[in-house]
Amino acid sequence: MLNAVYRLVAPRRFDVTFKDIDLCGDKIIVRPTHLSICHADQRYYQGARPAEILEQKLPMALIHEAIGEVVYDPTGEFKSGDSVVMIPNTPTQEDEVIAENYRRSSKFRASGFDGFMQDLVALDADRVVRLPQGIDKTIAAFTELVSVSVHALNRFDKIAHKRREVVGIWGDGNLGYITAVFFKAMFPDTKLYIFGADKEKLEDFTFADETYHVKKIPSDMKIDHAIECVGGEPSQMAINQIIDYINPEGTISLLGVSEYPVPINTRMVLEKGLRLYGSSRSGRADFEKTVAMYESNPEIIEYLSNLVGAVVEVDSIKDMTKAFEMDIQKSIGKTIMVWNK
Amino acid sequence: MIFGVVLAGGIGNRMGNVEKPKQFLTIGNKPILIHTLEKFYVNDKFEQIIVLCPAQWVEHTKNLIKKYLKDTERVVVITGGATRNDTIMNAITHIEEKYGIEDDTIIVTHDSVRPFLTHRIIEDNIKYALEYGACDTVIPATDTIVESQDHKVISNIPDRSKMYQGQTPQSFKVKKLKQFFNELTEEEKEILTDAAKIFVMKGEPVYLVAGEVFNIKITYPYDLRVAETLVKEER
User: Fold this and answer.
1) Considering the entire predicted model, what is its pTM?
2) What distance in Å separates residue A307's CA from the closest CA in chain B?
3) Among A91, A296, A329, A333, which is most buried by a count of CB atoms within 10 Å?
4) Which member of B35, B210, B230 has the closest CB to residue A17?
């Protein structure tokens, strides 16, 4: 079947191409309904990745955060019309030790191969997870981003030592907000402090125990563990600030993506015996846990609804460009494309 | 009930034509007809997909379907008629005999040589045929349309902003289509090249569904080359 795929062919330019979908295999076919734009998509769209990366990756369909409706399932597990979230990470090899999202052999949509900006998407049967009935689709659209937080918090639970009186999250953007919401749900007995650079954004973290502007942190501040959700150039300041305020043998979970290497005060890392570990992307188990928590903790959905920014109806390639340009203007929140193309 | 009707060539125009009809030519690694059919096949809203082709190609078409589709129960191949509308009427007769016709029985008719049809276009056709009784897939005209009554000089140049180019699918409530068609005189039937026009002539609304520029009809060798370019693997 000749499937329309809307690829970014050059910065700020989308075009259609066609790829054959083989119906003889066991692939599930999903019609995307709601797509959410991520910083990573924006870096390609604006041509902000190094030239050799753009040369290597484009043309490629963007978007790795999306939900849709099952159209065709030869395995019989889903009915047509079932709402599902699609998993962008696509393992190609089994591994009993290394998680699917860290295997070098795994492929990732809108990074190594075409993302979800397509008429129909063909996926392996284990790359879709059923969504709860009646869920707000503009919120469910960025479940992938939420699952990245859930994945990082699971790793935190495995790696961080047991003294968890105070945990700090650096970053008041989307990822910081989502991670904080889930942290409160998963670790209700731990005090959660948020450290950010934007007073207004910090005011939205009403569920946190304290919020601090990064320029006005009390000198006697102490935290047991930290989660960095800053990314980019400011992540240098954030990580070194964490190193200053964290108690010995604390753990620092790094979630923020930076295009360039970040200098770190390793002397203090050594002196305090700190552990820094990275968390990136997510796998099927994280999606399943995320969806289960949508149902078990309905307050989460209410908090996440604060992140729904512009909702753009996409009927044409022009609308795709419009959605990406609107997304550039926003200060926080997610731009959702309602996919009518 | 909803039926897919894939029009794969009326017999009249192609009699004695030794050239292989375009729907059997290959794009990528499959015949064009199969690419088109697959779009209907994955949509389980269709009770049955009826492929209509010239009598001498029925067996060949059946064999292709067996070769390329997993489960062929929902696909039936029958002989088309002398004209496009006769062919559609053959499909309607088939539906009437096998399933009966209710008020909301719908057909989504589509040219087999338009394999770039999208899922969204099919879904919109079903939606608007149910809502309005008939719909037609179109794109805004990009070239100025010029009318000439005598084929020598221009008689009219209509306002381009109101002009559209017709594509397919065209979708209809079967009961109405059959009734309107049967009410036409033989002369009217003669000049009728388009099923949507039957509704227009009766003053019935035909809703416009947005098509796609790439939903091209593969008619000439040039179109086939364009189609091959569209599916060529870039990376």
Assistant:
1) 0.93
2) 28
3) A91
4) B230
Would the CB atoms of B231 and A20 count as touching at under 8 Å? yes
Residue A118: DSSP 8-state: B
Which residue, among B36, B41, B118, B226, would best test binding to A if mutated, counting the most A CBs under 10 Å from its CB? B118
**Quick check: A202 and A211 in contact, CB under 8 A?**
yes
Domains and their CATH numbers in chain A: 2-142+307-339 (3.90.180.10), 147-278 (3.40.50.720)
Cβ within 8 Å, pair A59-B120: no
In the CATH scheme, what is the homologous superfamily, with its name and number, of domain B2-138+166-231? Spore Coat Polysaccharide Biosynthesis Protein SpsA; Chain A (3.90.550.10)
Q: Is the dihedral of CA B166, B169, B175, B179 positive or negative?
A: positive
Phi/psi of residue A67, each to 5°? -125, 170
Q: Which residues of A283-302 are buried (b: 16+ CB within 10 A; e: fewer)?
A: bbbbbbbbbebbeebeebbe
Chain B: closest CA distance from residue A257 (Å): 27
Contact A80 B231 (CB under 8 A): no
Which residue of B lies nearest to A73 if distances are taken between CA atoms?
Answer: B42
User: ipTM for the complex?
Assistant: 0.90
Closest approach of A71 to chain B, Cα-based (Å): 6
pLDDT in tens, chain A (341 residues): 999 999 999 999 999 999 999 998 899 999 999 999 999 999 999 999 999 999 999 999 999 999 999 999 999 999 999 999 999 999 999 999 999 999 999 999 999 999 999 999 999 999 999 999 999 999 999 999 999 999 999 999 999 999 999 999 999 999 999 999 999 999 999 999 999 999 999 999 999 999 999 999 999 999 999 999 999 999 999 999 999 999 999 999 999 999 889 999 999 999 999 999 999 999 999 999 999 999 999 999 999 999 999 999 999 999 999 999 999 998 889 999 999 99
